[in-house]
Amino acid sequence: MFKNTPAFSGFSVNSLAAAKKFYGDVLEVTVEDRGDMGITLKFPVCNDVYIYHKADHAPAAFTILNFVTENINSAVDELLAKGVTIERYEGFHQDEKGIARGIAAKMGPDIAWFKDPAGNILSVLQEK
User: Fold this and answer.
1) Residue 40 is assigned to a structural domain of this protein
2) What pLDDT was estimated at residue 106?
3) Does residue 3 sit within a domain?
4) Residue-by-residue DSSP string for 64-112
5) How far apart are CA 84 and CA 82, in angstroms?
6) How far apart are CA 13 and CA 54, in angstroms?
7) Burial class (CB in 10 A: 0-12, 13-18, 19+), 48
8) Is 1 within the bounds of a domain?
9) Which residues of the chain have a pLDDT value below 70?
10) How many domains are contained in the chain?
11) Is the separation of the CB atoms in 18 and 118 below 8 Å?
Protein backbone atom coordinates (compact mmCIF):
# COMPACT_ATOMS: atom_id res chain seq x y z
CA MET A 1 0.00 0.00 0.00
CA PHE A 2 2.71 2.53 0.99
CA LYS A 3 5.75 0.73 -0.46
CA ASN A 4 6.61 3.55 -2.89
CA THR A 5 5.26 6.47 -0.86
CA PRO A 6 7.66 9.00 0.66
CA ALA A 7 7.30 9.15 4.44
CA PHE A 8 8.66 11.39 7.16
CA SER A 9 8.66 11.39 10.93
CA GLY A 10 7.44 14.02 13.33
CA PHE A 11 7.23 14.68 17.03
CA SER A 12 5.98 17.33 19.43
CA VAL A 13 7.68 19.85 21.68
CA ASN A 14 6.36 22.35 24.20
CA SER A 15 8.27 25.29 22.69
CA LEU A 16 9.03 25.76 19.01
CA ALA A 17 11.42 28.62 19.80
CA ALA A 18 13.47 26.44 22.16
CA ALA A 19 13.43 23.56 19.64
CA LYS A 20 14.54 25.84 16.80
CA LYS A 21 17.44 27.17 18.88
CA PHE A 22 18.51 23.72 20.14
CA TYR A 23 18.34 21.87 16.83
CA GLY A 24 19.69 24.78 14.77
CA ASP A 25 22.27 26.37 17.06
CA VAL A 26 23.37 23.54 19.36
CA LEU A 27 23.07 20.50 17.06
CA GLU A 28 23.74 22.55 13.90
CA VAL A 29 20.93 20.93 11.90
CA THR A 30 19.38 22.99 9.09
CA VAL A 31 16.01 24.18 10.41
CA GLU A 32 13.20 25.40 8.17
CA ASP A 33 10.70 27.60 10.00
CA ARG A 34 7.11 26.79 9.02
CA GLY A 35 5.55 29.54 11.13
CA ASP A 36 2.77 28.43 13.44
CA MET A 37 2.79 25.00 11.78
CA GLY A 38 6.16 24.09 13.29
CA ILE A 39 9.69 23.55 12.05
CA THR A 40 11.31 21.03 9.74
CA LEU A 41 14.74 19.53 10.31
CA LYS A 42 16.44 19.17 6.92
CA PHE A 43 18.94 16.35 6.40
CA PRO A 44 21.05 15.85 3.27
CA VAL A 45 20.79 12.06 3.00
CA CYS A 46 17.44 11.14 4.56
CA ASN A 47 13.91 12.42 4.91
CA ASP A 48 13.06 15.57 6.80
CA VAL A 49 11.74 15.47 10.36
CA TYR A 50 8.77 17.65 11.31
CA ILE A 51 8.50 19.21 14.79
CA TYR A 52 5.26 20.76 15.96
CA HIS A 53 4.04 22.51 19.09
CA LYS A 54 1.67 20.65 21.40
CA ALA A 55 0.35 22.51 24.43
CA ASP A 56 0.07 19.35 26.52
CA HIS A 57 3.32 17.85 25.21
CA ALA A 58 4.65 14.84 27.09
CA PRO A 59 8.25 13.83 26.31
CA ALA A 60 8.73 10.54 24.53
CA ALA A 61 9.94 7.76 26.85
CA PHE A 62 12.04 6.27 24.05
CA THR A 63 14.62 7.48 21.54
CA ILE A 64 12.87 9.48 18.82
CA LEU A 65 15.85 10.61 16.74
CA ASN A 66 19.30 9.07 16.21
CA PHE A 67 22.29 10.97 14.86
CA VAL A 68 24.89 8.71 13.23
CA THR A 69 28.50 9.84 13.52
CA GLU A 70 31.87 8.47 12.48
CA ASN A 71 33.45 9.53 15.80
CA ILE A 72 31.24 9.25 18.85
CA ASN A 73 33.97 10.50 21.19
CA SER A 74 34.24 13.81 19.34
CA ALA A 75 30.46 14.12 19.01
CA VAL A 76 29.92 13.60 22.75
CA ASP A 77 32.74 16.04 23.56
CA GLU A 78 31.07 18.66 21.35
CA LEU A 79 27.67 18.06 22.96
CA LEU A 80 29.18 18.39 26.44
CA ALA A 81 31.04 21.57 25.43
CA LYS A 82 27.70 23.06 24.33
CA GLY A 83 26.11 22.28 27.69
CA VAL A 84 24.18 19.18 26.66
CA THR A 85 23.84 16.54 29.39
CA ILE A 86 24.45 12.92 28.47
CA GLU A 87 21.78 10.69 30.00
CA ARG A 88 22.62 7.58 31.99
CA TYR A 89 20.36 4.56 32.04
CA GLU A 90 20.20 1.60 34.41
CA GLY A 91 21.33 -1.63 32.77
CA PHE A 92 23.61 0.00 30.21
CA HIS A 93 27.33 -0.09 30.86
CA GLN A 94 28.19 3.51 30.04
CA ASP A 95 31.74 4.83 30.34
CA GLU A 96 32.86 8.07 32.01
CA LYS A 97 31.52 10.08 29.03
CA GLY A 98 28.17 8.29 29.17
CA ILE A 99 28.80 6.20 26.04
CA ALA A 100 27.54 2.62 25.96
CA ARG A 101 30.29 0.77 24.08
CA GLY A 102 28.39 -1.80 22.04
CA ILE A 103 30.95 -2.26 19.25
CA ALA A 104 33.68 -3.80 21.44
CA ALA A 105 31.10 -6.03 23.14
CA LYS A 106 29.63 -7.06 19.76
CA MET A 107 26.25 -5.83 20.99
CA GLY A 108 25.33 -3.08 18.53
CA PRO A 109 26.64 0.45 18.10
CA ASP A 110 28.44 2.72 20.51
CA ILE A 111 25.67 5.06 21.67
CA ALA A 112 25.02 7.99 23.99
CA TRP A 113 21.64 9.52 24.80
CA PHE A 114 20.66 13.11 25.48
CA LYS A 115 17.44 15.15 25.59
CA ASP A 116 16.10 18.12 23.68
CA PRO A 117 14.65 21.09 25.63
CA ALA A 118 11.20 19.42 25.57
CA GLY A 119 12.61 16.28 27.22
CA ASN A 120 12.47 14.07 24.11
CA ILE A 121 15.23 11.44 24.04
CA LEU A 122 17.80 11.64 21.22
CA SER A 123 20.97 9.68 20.58
CA VAL A 124 24.30 9.94 18.89
CA LEU A 125 25.73 6.65 17.71
CA GLN A 126 28.67 5.16 15.90
CA GLU A 127 28.05 1.94 14.00
CA LYS A 128 31.68 0.93 13.29
Assistant:
1) yes
2) 85
3) no
4) EEEEE-S-HHHHHHHHHHTTPPEE--TTS-B-TTS-EETTTTTSS-EEE
5) 6
6) 6
7) middle
8) no
9) none
10) 1
11) yes
